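Run log, item B.
One chain of 178 residues. Sequence copied directly from the ordering sheet:
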Amino acid sequence: MRCPKCASNDDKVIETRISKEGDTIRRRRQCLQCGFRFTTYDSIIPADIYVVKRDGRREDFKQEKLRDGIRMACWKRNISQEQIENIVRDISTQLMSLPQSEVESHYIGELVMRALRNIDEVAYVRFASVYRHFKDVEAFINEINKMPAKETEPEGEEKPAAQGEATAEDAKPEESKP
């Protein structure tokens, strides 16, 4: 590896660590010429995957583009960068495991929507609105109606009131005492 300080090709590996996912190796190196220490990363270069767009164009699959689309859908939501990276990594792994080298863009979009639906419904609807080209509010409403309903409290049971919140008991008129 070439030293970033003196450009010498002589170095030694001081420390090696494998990432949690097992797909990257981090190496600390020291230049034997000048003693400068630097870090390198070894990772697998995925096979060429081509995305077939709706209009028939083909382009290289880029994780950055996928990450940016997910990040836009998750903007100002309580979704960590780690969760976004996990989605990108999972989808990339699924695409690399496919037998063909060409993947239609709608397949990738469906994978993203499935992942976002499990994490955050608002991010899911945001992504779906762009991916499915929603033209009006009616399209948003239809998509939201297709989503499974959240669990509600069983009938007859009341949810405990938060501090300072009125309850059904508070609404009853007080009985006058003689």
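Observations after the first pass:
- Residues 58 and 147 are 32 Å apart (CA to CA).
- The chain has a mean pLDDT of 81.
Flagged for discussion on Thursday.
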